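Table S7 (text form). Paired inputs.
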Amino acid sequence: MASSRGQARARTTGSARRTYAAGTRSAAARRGNGGHRGRFSAVRLILVAILLVAGVKLVQVQWFEAGALSAAAERQRTQTIDIPAQRGSIVDRNGAKLAFSVEVRSLSVNLKAFRKNMDDFAAKNPGTKKTFDSETAAAAKYIAAKVPSQLTEQQLLDLFHKQASFTYLEHNVEPSVAADIQKHFAWVEIEKRALREYPGDNLAANIVGVANWRTDDKDVSKHNLHGLVGLEQSRDNDLAGTPGRMLVNTKNGSDNVVIPGTERDLQAAVPGSDLELTIDSDLQYEVQRQLSDYVQQSHAKGGQAVVLDAKTGEVYALANDKTFDPNDPSTFADAEAMNDRAVTTPFEPGSVNKVVTATGAIDYGVATPESTIQVPGALQVADKTVHDAWTHGTQTFTTAGIFAKSSNIGTLLLAQKIGEERYADLLKKFGLGQRTGVGLPGESAGVVPARSQWSATTFGNLPIGQGLSMTVLQMAGMYQAIANDGLRVEPRIVKAKVNPDGTTVPEPAPKQVQVVSPQTAKTVRDMMRAVAQNGKGLQKGTAPTAAVEGYQISGKTGTGQQVDPRTRAYSDHLYNITFAGILPADHPRFVVGIRLDAPDTTLPVGHSAAPLFHSIASYLTQRFQIPLSDGPSPEVPLIVQ
């Protein structure tokens, strides 16, 4: 019995232990499941938070920052560049073009970007034959064949392999040729350019000047044509126009490689205005040719010539013997050739300046053309002794004879009767010592000593054309006043500006100065006809070779001593040889001024510019069909024996 009870307790105790153990395991399981659920809830909360933050960011990007981000992206792949404006043309008085622009292309390569693209391509395609060297070699060969007159194949290869991030290959390429090159080599970039053409080569080059563009960097805005010298420079604002703006897409914002076909105009370019000049191209050509030939024949260092309209002062021709070709940049190195010496370089004119004394003598009633004056062989002026160009004793000259024979002594005697104050006033009225305002850059005013600075010998120099200086244009301007009944009209070389819309804007009216009365001017003009008189013996003027058959000629010769650069004193062999003439004298149409710089005065063509005047005047009569004079110039006495 006891044994049975013990076994029962044992079974009960074991069962209880099993029940306890099971309960313990069940509680642990419950505790374990609760832990898992806690961790899951935490993860879920974290995920919800992350999704919530992401959602907020997405809303912010898509709704609030979309515009700004889009604009930033657009800025990285777009660029604004200038559109060059069409430069205005320069034409002569008849509409013949002296300068105009044509559209061309420049070829360039972004070497840095192209090398990188080739390296990336080679890395992705091992063993490829398409490399930087193979592509540039093919391009060099193709471009050299398409544009044979410019760089050679080797020169192009050198450009492709130079140590730089960017290079220009060719300029002034025909648009169709450039498009074909880019079609075969898309990495070659194209820029629109304008090429300035000068169809006359050196015709009026010192007047027109030259325009060019810089190629010092990749900024196309710096490639607009800009004037370097001449009217191209001084009237650059009128000719250049206003560049436009274009928006383009780029392959890489830092490399500025433009994607073809993405160009969008933001603002159209405004073309420049045309300039209409007063010059006549045919006459300009002839004056340039004749002047250059005469300078060579006379062994002169140089020369200038000008032709003015006698009434309006318009410049029909303005020439220098040395000039340049604006189509050939190699000629730009000669600074003297590019200098328009006809307006920039004054000189002492010599006896051509005696027209001031002639005018004063008539206007102030000091003399008449027929009145006489005793002219000695020498004249003392302060500490200076003045002589004539030839040796003579005291002779009786008519007033006309004093100027026809170019007597220094006779001129000074008349000037003394005029007086210093009145003479100084005449110099000013004739425009000496003042810029003419012709409209060309670099114009010189010449030099006339201020009245307060005149010394005792000054009035012994000025009336005979020494001690003051003028340009050939100023010299011709004095005679234009005499030709135009005493009314000096400041010369002009630009007639009008023609705007892009076709409207014509005339230049401001030139200033006018009534130097002397019409009657005085006519008397002086008639008196100066004796200069070309071909009388016998002492009745011959200084310039019979200036005469033109069928026309009356009025004018004056000049021989002005130059200062010897070695001694800094007046030279006995270096001269300015000048001539100023009116054609015809009875009905003035043109005024011609000529200066020869230090010709060989021992030569027939070196001691006078009158033969050159004759040649130019003869051409003028034919070119402009000038009617014959009413009759020959009457012969007048010069020296009374």
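Next pair, protein 2 of 2.
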Amino acid sequence: MTSMEAESAATILCTSKQTRFNIGSPNYRELDIEGLNITVTSSPRSGAKGKSKAKSEGTEILNNAKLRLKAGQRYALIGRNGTGKSTLLKAIAEKLIPGIPEETRIVILQQTDAGDASADEVSADSTSGKGESAAVLEEVIERATSKQEVQQEIEVLSGGVDGGDSFGALRAFRKVHHERLQKELFLKDKDARLRSGTRGMQARKALIAMEKKVAEFRSEFEQKDEDISPETLARETNEAADMLAELQLQIEPSKLAEIESRAKKILIGLGFTETLISTPVSSLSGGWKMRTALAAALLQETDILILDEPTNFLDLLGIIWLQRHLTAVAESADPPTLILVSHDRDFISLCTDLLIIKDKELTYFHGDLPMYESSRAEKRAHLTKMKEAQDKQKEHIQQTIQRNMREGKAKDDQNKIRQAKSRQKKLDDRWGMEVSAKGGRFKLNRDLVGFHLTSRSDIDIPQDERPISLVLPDPPDLRFPGALLSLENVAFRYPKDPRTKAVPPLVLQDINLSINMGDRVGVVGLNGSGKSTLIKLLAEETKPTSGTSTKHPRLKLGYYSQHAVEELQRDGRSDSALTSLALLKKEAEGELDEGEIRALLGSLGLPGRLASDVPVRKLSGGQLVRLEMARILWRRPHCLVLDEVTTHLDYETVAALGQALRHWEGAVVLVSHDRWFVRGVVEGLGEDESDDEEEEEERGGASAAMRRRLVYRLRTGRMNLLGGGVQEFEDGVEKRVRKLMGS
């Protein structure tokens, strides 16, 4: 085995073990890589000294890990924010990991910036020649088929073959061949710059060989007509005709019609209307650009498909459609291997396996997230029980050995002393795990691996990571009762367009909503149903066109906007030295001292130097969500209005936030496409209600059973209470998805 290395221009260093032997034709949909190490450095390496320095300064993501993906399986990559999920995905997609065949087709949808959807990418080499001036449908098809590039080659060859010049076909053939060589040279050069070590040496050799090939062809490309032999002319004229026929097959009308039909189905499933499908990509918002990139990723033929938080800008219709689409693809004859990252626990239930990144290792579990959590809890309980029983038995045996040693020495009984020593040796050598790694009975000669080992290992009870805990400050006393917020017969429409003077339609109508202390209110609906407008009315960012909006005179309202992360990123860019601590000091001047601000930030997962030393511009999406919550919570609000608060959080933080909101004394109005989160916070599902009641009694607050738990659906501007809660809404969306998919 040899160690090989690679690095991206962005500072990702990868090493792994590689066999020198030819293992035959690989299955490109599988990966089996051992000894994987990934380190992220602050600057590219240069030379041997730079290498060691970079490694010492870098952040280690994986250490001697095993990356094993089975063909056609669906993997949910899970791990806390900051464990390196996106780095691992980027290393796989760019084939920086030695052992990934260059021929492997990998498509990635990766959020390169937590708040900039336009920065999302679908593989480095799949961009349209027209760029963002192309319509959505054209862009998606181009990324999947390189249609524009093929058509350009057809035009060149057709002009040469059908023209009157006898050398026209040869010239066209050589021109196309020359352009292809230039593109291949560019890729070889990029490959050589990305890699280092043994693999980098191989890449540079390939680049030198390619440069030689291009140089040799250049003289042929510039050859004059009179210097071309009749045999060469005849051969290359035939080759031009063959190439033209092959290219025409690639974009024959029936094939393109099939691809266009598939592209339209995908775009409609992701929420595009016929109008949006023909809209230029450049005029789309960041969210719709992300959906365009997702559609292109789904349309391409690939061996490994990587989707990093694909649901961030989808409504429930798009989420359920994507869930069913990926499941249908997985059930096809030759499905790609899927790696999926998502904070949405319901969505990742489509995966067959979990790929867990933790403690710089990769571990695997066949099953879904609830099964994994249940399995870990059962294993921990079983091993704890086994260890307690063994410790009790061991203590008894130790007492017996000590008594026998005392008696043997007192009576000079060598047999008793030898017997005691023998029992002590057996206790040292054969005490520990009673089962093998496979779960069977432990056998010393079979399961004690390693000539240097002389005894079994102790029972190792797996310790969970320190659980994420978010603490929300209790709201102050209102002093007198009454509704916190109330909307009565409210309607809203945007102002007239001064150019057309047309009256816009009503966005909301006949809205009646009352929110009291302790209420849990969920608002669900598809994109365009008026949820954001309703939230802005509640947050008093806009006023109703008609009807009455009132609030409690002592109400303190906390509003989390779905654009909060982007706004904080803009603040961080405008003031590069701004830290979380400095931001809150400025906003809470005179009301909180530094110790209180640090305590609040720490309770939300931004402790110590992370709060005082790390600039806001360098915080991750999940950390920015925590910072925004701190900006809201330092005022100790009575009511929280949360619009898509889970978007940038990992699943464990989502669970912790849900737990905190469940037991908080104030009122919560929640807008989210995360079904699991809404069920937990609003409907109180997923935990033992008796535990809720006991905790509320201990805190001296109202019983959780006394809370109003309401789920409203917004549709075409009207709001209706759902008696069946989130499940009723989900069932309705499922019916629409089945209709869309023709099933």
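The first strand starts at residue 2 and ends at 7.
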